[in-house]
Each structure stands twice: as structure tokens, then as C-alpha cells.
Write a structure and sequence with these properties.
Organism: Weissella thailandensis
CATH architecture of the largest domain: 2-Layer Sandwich
Distance between the termini: 28 Å
Radius of gyration: 20 Å
Number of domains: 2
CATH topology of the largest domain: D-amino Acid Aminotransferase, Chain A, domain 1
Structural class: alpha+beta
Strand content: 15-25%
Helix content: 25-40%
Number of helices: 12
Bound molecules: nicotinamide-adenine-dinucleotide
Protein name: DNA ligase
Largest sheet: 5 strands, mixed
Family: Belongs to the NAD-dependent DNA ligase family. LigA subfamily.
Number of strands: 11
CATH superfamily of the largest domain: DNA ligase/mRNA capping enzyme
Length: about 325
């Protein structure tokens, strides 16, 4: 039945089913770093749940997977870190039309014509790094957004990440840990030779490699990083926009991705998406979309967040890659 024709009993039943399925997939993905379905299949079910919850707001539980970051618990063996500023997920869109609607909606709150910073959506896992007087003192994963896992011992084996900044600043920066495509291929080949289960994709391999009790395993895994956020950036770094922030992080010696572009209208965003999509295969790391962020940092505070996502940013997700579609088709016919 279409959502519009459903009564609330039928909707409640469907919601329950979807919650159960999504929780199961999220557990496999986030806790075990071993998904059993493609992201596009997860995204489709998630979107369906969102549609049902929008049509039947009385059926939205605070425990719903749509109301929680990651929807997973931290691995019990690793020490815990509390995120004073929660680490959020991102809202997502799958078409230029949805993206236009989002841009129109954000513009509504402001008289000034907004600029946006367009960035690549790096396919890895979120990381928070704390520097005190320029020295790296703590690294943690996103976890459920409020409580993450302490990976300080592991992070020292991510070569890109400086132990010391170029200035003696005390700051928390956030970004993405990823496994370069080549390192992923080599890792899976060696696991196959050793008869070990292979990783489904570089993102799961990165997560599985960082979240290790034994940091020497992380050392063997060749992880990299891109940073793109700083807490209280305006005060601590004296910057006013997201694009300035990226340049400032680079000056501090942090790895940043330099393919970002400041855009002001939907045509610019579309051009950026098309050119980055065309360039995707030539990158040494995986991306699963484009992130568009309101460029002015003071407007981030004005727009605020939901319990799960910032309202000042959105992810445009790429359609599933052809190889994935082919694999699924084969699965269906056997
Ligand atoms: P997400 O990965 O879609 O987006 C949010 C994350 O993007 C942020 O937390 C950040 O870590 C990252 N990011 C990368 N580049 C960024 C940039 N430039 N700026 C800001 N953030 C950037 O959201 P999520 O909540 O981590 O995961 C949801 C996604 O995970 C789903 O869309 C689905 O595709 C996948 N998933 C798949 C399964 C499965 O079984 N296959 C299960 C659960 C989740």
C-alpha cells in the first residue's frame, strides 16, 4: 500500500518492521564493521521509514533510528569519551530537486544571499581530535554522537595526523579517517590469502582498522585523514566561514581536502557535483557524495541542529555504483 492510502494500524506495523530491519543492518555495519546489504538498500528502507514517520507523526518514537546518530552503541572493550558538542550525522538528498529544495529552505531564514561551501563526502568514519597547546592529546570516534570510543593509542599510527600543530593552540578538530583505495585492495588480498574474512568496502575497513584494542593492528593498516571542522572555530581560529576554516586547518598542519568550492546558486552546485562525479574514479580515496554547507559559520549557530543532523549542511549522495547494481542483479537471478 502507498503511504497516502495507509491507515495508522498498517503504518505502525510497517514502521515496526522497518525499525527492526534497519536496527539489524546498523548493528552489522557500525558494531561489526561488516554490512550484509548495500548502502543503497539501507538508504531506501531508511527513506521509506522517514516517509511513514512524516505521514504519521504520532508514531515517531524517540528510540527510532531516524532520531539517533548512527543508531549504535560503542564497542564495549574500548574506553569511552563524552562529546561535549555532539558529533552529528548529515541529512541526505538523492536528487538535484531535493537539493534545490534544501537550498531554498536554508535561504528563507536570511535576507543576504547565501554562499555555500561544497566539499567531497569522504567515505570513512568520523573522528574527533583534541589538541592542547598544540599537542595531540585525545582521539575519539563518533559512537552514538554523545559517547564515542577512545582511539588515542591508535591514532598515532595514522601518519597524516600531526602530533603537534604549527601553533600552540588548544582546539578540538573533527573530520574523517579513511583507507586509501590501494591500501584497501592490498589489505583484502592479504586477508584472502590468510583465509580471513575480507572487508566489504574501504569505509568498513577503515572503521575496523581504527577501532582496535591492539594499536599495532592499526599501524599495519595505512589509514589517512581529512579534517573539516573545528569546535568554536570563530573564536579559536579567528575565521568566519567554512572555506576559511579549511585553509586555516591546512596552515596548522592538518590534512584537509583541497577540492572544495564556494558556490552561490544551484547551477554552481550542480556543476560541482557533475565535475566531481566525473573525477571520482581518479581519486586515491573513496567518496560517497558531496556535502554542501552554509559558508558563514555564524549562520550555523542560527540554523542549529535537529537531534541527529545539522540544519546548515546536507549530503548529496551518489546513486549506487554500476558494479553494485550488477552484483545485486546477479544475486536476484540465482
Ligand atoms: P553518513 O555517513 O551518510 O553522513 C554523515 C557523516 O559523513 C559524518 O558523520 C561524517 O563522518 C561524514 N563526512 C564525510 N565527509 C564529510 C564532510 N566533508 N563534511 C561533513 N561530514 C563528512 O551518515 P551516517 O549516519 O554515518 O551513516 C548513514 C549511512 O551509512 C547510510 O546512509 C548508509 O548508506 C550507511 N549505512 C549502511 C548500512 C548497511 O547495512 N549497508 C547500515 C547502516 C548505515
Amino acid at each position: 500500500t502507498e503511504v497516502a492510502q495507509m491507515d495508522s494500524t498498517e503504518a505502525a506495523e510497517q514502521i515496526k518492521k522497518l525499525q527492526k530491519q534497519l536496527q539489524q543492518w546498523a548493528k552489522e555495519y557500525y558494531e561489526n564493521d561488516a554490512p550484509t546489504v548495500e548502502d543503497s538498500e539501507y538508504d531506501q528502507a531508511y527513506k521509506h521509514l522517514q516517509e511513514l514517520e512524516t505521514a504519521f507523526p504520532g508514531l515517531v518514537s524517540p528510540n527510532s533510528i531516524t532520531q539517533q546518530v548512527g543508531g549504535h552503541k560503542t564497542k564495549s572493550e574500548l574506553p569511552k569519551v563524552v562529546h561535549e558538542v555532539p558529533m552529528l550525522s548529515l541529512g541526505d538528498v538523492f536528487s538535484f530537486d531535493e537539493l534545490t529544495n534544501w537550498m531554498v529552505a536554508t535561504q528563507k531564514s536570511f535576507i543576504e544571499k547565501l554562499s555555500y561551501n561544497a566539499e567531497l563526502k569522504i567515505d570513512g568514519l568520523a573522528i574527533s581530535l583534541v589538541y592542547e597547546n598544540g599537542k595531540l592529546v585525545q582521539a575519539s570516534t563518533r559512537g552514538d554522537g554523545n559517547i564515542g570510543e577512545d582511539v588515542t593509542k591508535n591514532i598515532k599510527y595514522v601518519n597524516d595526523i600531526p602530533k603537534q600543530l604549527n601553533e600552540p593552540l588548544s582546539i578540538e578538530v573533527r573530520g574523517e579517517i579513511y583507507m586509501p583505495k590501494q591500501a584497501f585492495v592490498i589489505l583484502n588480498e592479504s586477508r584472502e590469502r590468510e583465509g580471513l574474512p575480507t572487508f566489504a568496502n574501504p569505509r568498513n575497513a577503515a572503521a575496523g582498522s581504527l577501532r582496535q584494542l591492539d594499536p599495532l593492528i592499526t599501524k599495519q593498516r595505512k589509514l589517512s585523514a581529512f579534517l573539516y571542522q573545528a569546535i568554536d572555530a570563530t573564536q579559536v581560529l579567528n575565521v568566519t566561514t567554512q572555506s576559511e576554516l579549511l585553509a586555516r586547518l591546512r596552515d596548522l598542519g592538518l590534512p584537509t581536502n583541497n577540492t572544495n568550492a564556494v558556490v552561490t546558486n544551484i547551477e554552481d552546485v550542480e556543476n560541482y557535483i557533475v565535475s566531481q562525479t566525473n573525477n571520482r574514479d581518479s581519486l586515491s580515496y573513496g567518496i560517497d557524495g558531496i556535502v554542501i554547507k552554509v559558508n558563514r559559520l555564524d549562520y550555523h549557530e542560527e540554523l542549529g541542529n535537529t537531534v541527529k543532523v545539522p540544519k546548515w549542511a546536507i549530503a548529496y549522495k551518489f546513486p549506487p555504483e554500476e558494479s553494485e547494481t550488477v552484483i545485486r542483479n546477479i544475486e536476484w537471478t540465482v
